[in-house]
Amino acid sequence: xxxxxxxxxxxxxxxxxxxxxxxxxxxxxxxxxxxxxxxxxxxxxxxxxxxxxxxxxxxxxxxxxxxxxxxxxxxxxxxxxxxxxxxxxxxxxxxxxxxxxxxxxxxxxxxxxxxxxxxxxxxxxxxxxxxxxxxxxxxxxxxxxxxxxxxxxxxxxxxxxxxxxxxxxxxxxxxxxxxxxxxxxxxxxxxxxxxxxxxxxxxxxxxxxxxxxxxxxxxxxxxxxxxxxxxxxxxxxxxxxxxxxxxxxxxxxxxxxxxxxxxxxxxxxxxxxxxxxxxxxxxxxxxxxxxxxxxxxxxxxxxxxxxxxxxxxxxxxxxxxxxxxxxxxxxxxxxxxxxxxxxxxxxxxxxxxxxxxxxxxxxxxxxxxxxxxxxx
Length: 376
Description:
The protein is α/β, with parallel strands linked by helices. The protein contains 15 helices and 15 strands.
């Protein structure tokens, strides 16, 4: 480790002064200014990780972010976590908890009253939220890491392997379209950005294809059939949050990470049949899988168009060579039972606590299964 936190702050100060003088002279276009700012940042970095970076996590106790906070602390970073403080899981010991609400403009704006080496943003989902971050954190951080989504990538019947150069386009899912709009806005700004696109990452929640994971697990335990889109053989990547955390933190303070896109996933993929059969095995029950064409399912419920046509009905694997070059090599768990062990454990905890299930779509699922059975 050969780059100090002071080095990051000097870089940030130099970038601001360079940018200000250049704008004052009015000799470059906005696009050139952006490139000069990035070059100034890169000139102050090498490929080492900062020893004591001041890191702000926005979120920090969620499905993906909590293990990232823990790994950042274990790596020696000074970590602050901004959130509402309402989740059941506590902020890891050693992190400073900053209680506030992103919807409270005053408390959120105070985050920009100090300098950060890294801002890790897990809670921006709309262009309006991104614009606010641009206003608050430009000139206040050496690196702004945006958590986007691998669902932004264009799906194609001619290619199942996804790299960071895969076109970004999703014609079906508003969630992904909003993330794309956020990426576009961020990349046009003066933020020293790094764009991270996780795929399906699991920790507390069970994976689900059409229904949510808990609801399908409850159906399994009740002896009821569950629905999968297609024939159950499409390939899907599941990544444990704790496996994502190491390469994510490995991007902190890296010159090669600035103004770059990265996805972070496992290298293996599993069929949806295997995922559901493994969930049933882990719960100690048998399961009946009912396979229904995606085109049929979205005629029953148009809300499934985005998650299915825009994401889960496709076979998708990811080439992780870029993140490994920059953040260092890493390995993800490839044993499906182990990948699902924590989601199963948390599901059992929810059952024991009598957490309410989501039964709104149960009549529709029963109807689809019944009507499919009449086809013979």
